[in-house]
Amino acid sequence: MLKKALHYILLSIPAILVTTGCQNYKVATTTANIKLPATYTGVTDTLSIARLPIKQFFADPYLVNLIDTAIAANPDILTALQRVEMAKANLRFNASKLLPQINITGNAGVEKYGDYTMNGVGNYDTNFSPNINNNQRIPNPVPNYFLGFQSSWEIDLWGKLNNRKKAAYARFLASNHGYRLVITSLTAQIAQAYYQLLALDTELGIIKKNIGLQENALEIVKIQKQGGRATELAVQQFQAQLLRTKGLEYSTRQQIKETENRLNFLTGGFDRPVARDSSITSAALPPLLAAGIPSQLLLNRPDIQAAELELKAMNADIKAARANFLPSLTLTPYVGYNAFKAALLFDPGSVTYGVLGGLTAPLFNRKMLKAELERTIAESKVAVYNYQKNILAGFQEVSNGLNGIENYNRFYRMKEQELQALNNALSVANDLYLVGRANYLEIITAQRSVLDAELELANTKRNIFLSAVNLYQAVGGGWR
């Protein structure tokens, strides 16, 4: 009766384990519910610069060459490539878990049985049996030699291993998008620094031109002082303005050097001259500056795609974590040679094989598994919020880029008219000064206003280019 009850208990254990595990196995996934607007502030153009290759978007061959150099040598790019390799290796590792793990094994040992143990008594009697020969007699201590193959194979009953593989695959794809994101960011940084350098070159040219004009004006006022038509105060005011402008020249030269060094750093080089166009005013804007529609962000922006893939990976992690509560079936087959005498190890009679199957389920470590599951669910929610944040940031960046291009273009046209008016005012002031109807302060003020307006015009042109670059990056361009 006791034997029969024990038999039923043993048979019922697997069912109890499965039932207990199933109580915790409820499929749950996290999703991001975010609805994008149909257009960007009423812009309905479905074309997008996102799919334009770098060489088509940027018409400047010097800039394209800098970007090509950076992609081949920039440390961030090289690091991103290694992250892709790491993700690929992790994918192969998790895929291999679905296959049997086969090892070649060779081991040797020795064991002495006591006289009052089951093996000791059994081996003693066996050695007196007429059914065995001398080679089969068991020594004491008993050596043990094994050479063969041993395997361990976890049967993926509940999809745990497959879900881990899916998570690794999603992260591998995300690492590829991460690599593209680094290229996009690097392209934008180089373009921004390049146009900043062109603007500084233009500013330097403007400053040099004004230095020449101010030196001329200083010589004139010195001559006038000698003739009694000007005072020492006027000479000092003109001298101070000239020194101020010369100071601007050195400040601008320092900014040029720092920007060149920045470009050298981004392209993986040291102190070398940066080949570039002559001026920001002669540089050509990209022919197409269309953002497309907001839904294209989901297809084009590498950071959004990477965040979406991370969300998929986290959902697969949740399923794998829930499967940890369920029983796991592991098979451990083996085949090889086994003997207690080294000379007989490779005898045909020493061939041995077998297979063991084990069904295990967590019992006392369920709190640990529950904590792991809760952590995975929390991480998946973080992935959701990160995905939403990237979409919101992308929409905002595109909107800023579109408005920046439009507003800076309008500002540039206004600034051109302002500069024209200031040049006219300076010309009139010079004429009036020569006939004694304007004082030297009006000349100085007019000269300074023209210089400031010319510098601001160059900066505005730079801002137009920077807005175009930011838009290109915001819509997901710059990595093709």
Automatic annotation (TrEMBL):
Residues annotated as coiled-coil are 405-432
**Where is it localised?**
Cell membrane
What's the protein's topology in the membrane? Lipid-anchor
Q: Which UniProt keywords are given for this protein, alphabetically ordered?
A: Coiled coil, Lipoprotein, Membrane, Palmitate, Transmembrane, Transmembrane beta strand
Q: Indicate where this protein is primarily found.
A: membrane
State a GO cellular component annotated for this protein. Answer: plasma membrane
One MF term in GO for this entry?
efflux transmembrane transporter activity
Q: Which family does it belong to?
A: Belongs to the outer membrane factor (OMF) (TC 1.B.17) family.
Protein's UniProt name:
TolC family protein
**Originating organism:** Mucilaginibacter hurinus
**Taxonomic lineage of this organism?**
Bacteria, Pseudomonadati, Bacteroidota, Sphingobacteriia, Sphingobacteriales
